[in-house]
Amino acid sequence: MENKIKKVDLIFGKVDYLDILSKSLKRTRDELILDVIDSGLRGRGGAGFPTGLKWKFAKNEEADQKYVICNADEGEPGTFKDREILTEAPEKVLAGMALCGYCIGATEGYIYLRGEYNFLLPSLNKAIEKFHNELKKLKLDFTIRICSGSGAYVCGEETALMESMEGKRGEPRNKPPFPTSFGYLGKPTSVNNVETLVFALMIAQEGPAKFKEMGTFDSRGSKVFSVSGDTPSPGIYELELGMTLEQFVEEFGDGDTKAVQVGGASGFCVSRKEFKNTVIGFEGIPTGGSMMLFNSSRSMFNILNDYLEFFEEESCGQCTPCRVGCQQLLKGIEAVKKGIKPPKYLEELQKLSDTMRIASKCGLGQSVPNPFNSIINNFREEIIY
Amino acid sequence: MSKYKVNLKINNIPISVDEGTTILDAARQLNFKIPTLCHHDDLCVAGNCRVCVVEQKGNRALPASCATPVSEGMEIQTNSLKVRQARKHIVELLLTEHNADCTKCFKNGFCELQEMSNAYRIGDHVFIDLVMEKDKVTDISSPSIEKDDSKCIRCQRCVRTCTSMQYVSALAVTHKGNDMRISTFLDKPMNDVVCTNCGQCINRCPTAALTERSYIDEVFDAIYDPKKFVVVETAPATRVAIGEEFGMEPGTRVTGKMVSALRRLGFDKVLDTDFTADLTIMEEGTELLTRLKEALVDGKDVALPMLTSCSPGWIKFQEHLYHDLLDNLSTCKSPQQMFGPLAKTYYAEKVNKNPADMVVVSIMPCTAKKFEAERPEMRGSGYKDVDYVLTTRELGRMIHQAGIDFEKLEDEKYDSILGESTGAGIIFGNTGGVMEAALRTAYEIVTGREVPFTNLSIRPVRGMEGVKEASVKIKDVKPEWSFLEGVDLNVAIAHGLVNAKTLMDRIKAGDANYHFIEIMACPGGCIGGGGQPIPTNMEVRKKRAAGVYEEDEAMVIRKSHENPEVTELYESFLHEPLGHKSHDLLHTHYTPRKRH
Ligand SMILES: Cc1cc2nc3c(=O)[nH]c(=O)nc-3n(C[C@H](O)[C@H](O)[C@H](O)COP(=O)(O)O)c2cc1C
Ligand code: SF4
Ligand code: SF4
Ligand code: SF4
Ligand code: SF4
Ligand code: FES
Question: What average pLDDT does range B482-495 have in this prediction?
Fold first, then answer.
């Protein structure tokens, strides 16, 4: 069996980003957007919305002002790839933002930077200053500012992020309306993950065909992964999409991997017996980049417990299914573990988590059932005994 | 505006509604009632409780019907199995966070959460109770408001009320996750923050998390104490709303039944705050004319425009946020607080009672008046002028508790004296009413003629617009008022504190040349007061307001200066408006307060 995962270097490789920009500015916005649509690029922040479509929606809105926001909140436990990109290739991120600005008709961009990444501020500000000067030569009217995050995980959710930028409490908004029509300060806004913006820039350079060649039908191109946990080689890797977990574990596992948490705390836990049939990508298990490997020394109860404690605290608390649901799931597994509730109580909790998935207001509450159900289904015994 | 029609199906029934309509409202049009908790007709959309979720064909998630606009071709199920399961879970989750001691609870029988829990028959608690003993503490620092966080379902109705409707922001959402709660600046007690005690949040709270401080037991104790002579005064706005506590339509005029019920409850005398509303007009009208004279004739630097002072919620708002303009505020006490000291002096003498043995109870549409009665300056009689203030809702409770069949009662009349009132006193209950009553009197004093409006109805000051303005030309004045000849008397009216803010900011910016301004803290004025029956919303306010105007038109006397008891009071006791006795009993002063 062929088992080489293709390593790619689109994100971190040095490019002449000004050349890409100046060539792009000679093309029409529609052409550029069509290329992004054609490439099949989907958002790398987790939700996986087709990036080209998002830009098209924002472009089609009539407004006196529009905004580009680069989502660098990176709060998902186990993810640290955006930090790396902003450290190693900040000019590519800025150029991606400018490209997006040109495409949708925005002259202002913001980087919403995770509070813990404030140490990047000096270098980023320097890069922005340099970039602004370069843009003058290109005669592109686009200004980038940095907005420091508030430290709450939920502020990575795009509408909570914009509320927080507006100086309000970081609570997700009702959708619709979507940010592309009613975003920051009520104006059409394209919120894109750090990595997404760089891929968009690379697609402008290489053309959609080359990007499309990689990956699978549903998951085109490559993706930056943050590999952590029980692995001899933790770190950041850009890999072609479409590999199976078996291939992944072969490459990164320590020989005793019993489960991989794909997509961070809000992602899915896949157990050893499913590695072979699980594709990493939108057709299988999607991920914003986090891959955590667990070997047999780990207690899955503790892992689930940690995740639930995280969500119980990080829920913004506004909606009932998520605020109270998280507490119930956490208290619930503790009660089962202690024998206060019978094992079949786990079924009640799974029903409850189904309600959280369909009735919560935002992606946070909607995805708590991912780790919950996947861990309970795969490791029921570890939860009970 | 948007008149595009959108076609959709709700529970398989086709319907066509205006673009922008929510699923909730579209369903209402088809007579499907979707349960709601965080939604309130007066407030902006929140979409946070999630009990209103519905199933939408092709959508894996259940959208919140209150927060989701209809779209073309949508197919909605409001009561599918999926919806029912989710709704049941959500109500149950709320209950696990909730100190559900219904039988001891002030809201028992009037509670939206309880209603929902009954509707979904949530008896068998599947999930774990999350309420801890340490959370069961109630903040009773305020004489107006009780805040019990253990009953809070975090719907944020109060926050939206206090922020958007009242521009006070005394309440805010703090913390997140399992710790998320509704709190004040630095978690200070309610009485130590910017809260105006308006009670609008109480009126919108679906549970017992925010309620009025209730003094029902104290009042019953007084009534049954043979040594006490207990008189009750009733505000203008209660008589068109108290019927709602007994299932009657908002705006139903039940003055006679209310008087009868109060007597049956055992009050020794049933008197009327409308009487002191008329008296307020005499004092405040004179104060306005005096200020105008000082400005126009004596060239003095007097504070104009003059602001009304009948609304204690508004007064506290101004003390906190606009204390640099306190000189503009009329020194008149509110009608409630004019009543108290008169009852314990003038009236006590007339009925030969020792004021020390008197208890004055007032029935108000207002929670801020509970705070007002506690102000240290409100002791003009030498005693606490008003002993207990009850809301319209509390009176409803008392009548229920006493087993009085309200609807069947015969009409009875107020006792005399301090029971006579005019139409002008009654319209104090509506936004624009104080202004209208003042104009009816001031215009006539100055010109000797009635105000030039058909049937005495000064339409420009009426209605539910947030800020209203009017101008009355004063012509052919009596000789002693010659300085007002040809003057356009410019007035403005604001109700709801967010509108008060708009008006005050204009005054501060020097961009308003009004002489006289009426401000009421509550939307619609007192008929929309924080102590009024629940629910209160625009439709209800309009009905109550109409009731007030009907009551006015049904009165024989409709001008304050023609109230014979008021005339008698001046002749035999006060002697003249703004006189020495008035100063001691009917006027007050204010306290600048900080924002935080
Ligand atoms: C609770 C929560 C946290 C999120 N955190 C992030 C984040 O840290 N970074 C990010 O790019 N997207 C995050 N997202 C996804 C964003 O809402 C949004 O979909 C994304 O920024 C869009 O960019 P993309 O299309 O390029 O992925 C989060 C979503 C949720 C529900
Ligand atoms: S799902 Fe959770 S994080 Fe999202 S709005 Fe609801 S409470 Fe807030
Ligand atoms: S607030 Fe409602 S549900 Fe809660 S205890 Fe009171 S009556 Fe019962
Ligand atoms: S009483 Fe009025 S001012 Fe006070 S918290 Fe409630 S709404 Fe705000
Ligand atoms: S205090 Fe009342 S209105 Fe405010 S959030 Fe709690 S339950 Fe809702
Ligand atoms: S009523 Fe719709 S979410 Fe609360």
Answer: 96
Residue B56 pLDDT level (bands cut at 50, 70, 90): very high
- For residues A261 and A291, membership in a common domain is answered with yes
Same domain, A145 and A239: no
* A70, A295, B225 from B267: Cα distances, Å: 69, 79, 11
Q: Which domain holds residue A330?
A: 300-384
**Which letter, b or e, does each residue of A318-330 get, where b requires 16 or more Cβ atoms within 10 Å of its Cβ?**
bbbbbbbbbbbbb
Q: Check if B294 is active-site.
A: no
- Based on the residue annotation, tell me whether B287 is a catalytic residue of this protein: yes
- The CATH code of the domain that includes A168 is 3.40.50.11540
Same domain assignment for residues A65 and A195: yes
A362 lines ligand 1 (CB under 6 A): yes
The ranges of chain B annotated as CATH 3.40.950.10 are 282-331+421-586
Query: How is domain B93-212 classified at the architecture level of CATH?
Result: 2-Layer Sandwich (3.30)
Mean pLDDT calculated for residue range A34-51? 96
DSSP code, position B138: E
Check whether B203 has a pLDDT greater than 60.
yes
Q: What is the pLDDT of residue B72?
A: 97
Interval A135-170: pLDDT, tens: 999 999 999 999 999 889 999 999 999 999 999 999
Q: What integer pLDDT is reported at residue A2 of this predicted model?
A: 46
Residue A191 maps to a domain = yes
Average pLDDT over residues A14-38: 97
In a domain, A1, yes or no: no
Helix pair B81-96, A345-359: axis angle to 10 deg? 110
Report whether the peptide linkage leading into residue B90 is cis, meaning its omega lies within 30 degrees of zero: no
- B81: closest chain A residue by CA: A355
Does B86 sit within 8 Å of A351, measured CB to CB?
no
Token couple for A187:
């104006």
Say whether both A34 and A158 belong to one domain. Answer: yes
For residues A191 and A226, membership in a common domain is answered with no
Q: With CA atoms as reference, report the closest residue to A295 among A245, A346, A249, A335.
A: A249
Domain B282-331+421-586 belongs to what topology?
A: Fe-only Hydrogenase (Larger Subunit); Chain L, domain 3 (3.40.950)
Residue of A315, A326, A358 with shortest CB distance to B62:
A358
> A360 and A272 in one domain?
no
The alpha carbon of residue A86 is apart from the nearest alpha carbon of chain B, in Å, by 29
Whether A119 and A255 share a structural domain: no
Q: What are phi and psi of B377, to 5 degrees?
A: -75, -10
The CA B280 to ligand 2 mean position distance, Å, reads: 51
pLDDT exceeds cutoff 50 at B153: yes
Say what percent of chain B tops pLDDT 90.
97
How many angstroms separate the CA of residue A318 from the nearest CA in chain B? 6
A62-107 pLDDT, tens digit per residue, is 999 999 999 999 999 999 999 999 999 999 999 999 999 999 999 9
- Judge if A199 and A275 occupy the same domain: no
User: Contact A174/B62, CB-based, under 8 Å?
Assistant: no
Kindly report the pTM of this predicted structure. 0.96
Tokens of B575: 């002697």
pLDDT score of A245 = 97
Which class is domain B5-79?
alpha beta
- Of B80, B61, B59, the residue nearest B10 (C-alpha): B80
Residues on chain A touching B68 (C-beta within 8 angstroms): 174, 176
